[in-house]
Design brief:
8-stranded mixed sheet, binds glycinamide ribonucleotide, transferase, GART, EC 2.1.2.2, GART_AS, Phosphoribosylglycinamide formyltransferase
């Protein structure tokens, strides 16, 4: 099996959807769930599922990304992942870090990339008057929320949607999209997954 490390910062619902998909004839298995916050709710969910966990708090590094990443690399390299999945990991990674996992690091982003890179994607889509929105999984490169798109799920923005209602609906699509992309990717197939 391919070994998959998953990086999280919060509740880890995408991490759970990935972990729970890696059973049976799936070509990959989880090897580590790693967070930049020891209080991330997802760490307990991973531990409950019998997966190794680790946390490296970014705060003591006070913006020294290289020093933070050097610590983050220790448990990550120890786990010897073939694939690294960012799943709600809210720290920007340097090109130096990303280059160590070139071609084998994925991220899920809550917009139809290349639209709305960065934060507050749902509010920005509503404010722009978009009728469509969604989520994307892409290969991670040095540029933020850039890199080849490996899958997208689209949905309609409804009248009365708020950033919160829209985020909740997009999240249900994320939970279908990311496992579908990972399964293909772990089988060396980079054909984009398009949902629904
Ligand atoms: C998800 O919506 C994910 O797409 C987003 O954070 C949420 C994490 O939820 N990621 C980003 O905004 C990355 N910049 P989760 O912890 O329940 O998976």
């Amino acid at each position: 099996h391919k070994r998959v490390a998953i990086l999280i910062s919060g509740g880890g619902s995408n991490m759970v959807s990935l972990v729970d998909s890696m059973t049976g004839d799936h070509p990959a298995r989880p090897c580590l769930v790693l967070s930049n916050d020891a209080g991330a709710g997802g760490l307990k969910k991973a531990a409950d599922r019998g997966i190794a966990t680790a946390a490296v708090d970014h705060r003591p590094f006070k913006g020294d990304r290289a020093a933070f990443e050097a610590e983050l690399l220790k448990p990550l390299e120890q786990a010897q992942p073939d694939i690294v999945c960012l799943a709600g990991f809210m720290r920007v990674l340097t090109g130096d870090f990303v280059s160590r996992f070139q071609g084998r690091m994925l991220n899920i982003h809550p917009s139809l990339l290349p639209k709305y890179k960065g934060l507050n994607t749902h509010a920005r889509a509503i404010a722009a008057g978009d009728i469509e929105h969604g989520c994307s999984v892409h290969e991670v490169t040095a540029a933020l929320d850039d890199g080849p798109i490996l899958g997208q799920a689209r949905l309609n923005i409804e009248a009365g949607d708020t950033p919160e209602t829209l985020a909740a609906r997009v999240l249900t699509y994320e939970h279908r999209l990311y496992p579908a992309v990972l399964r293909r990717f772990a089988g060396n197939d980079r054909t984009p997954v398009l949902l629904p």
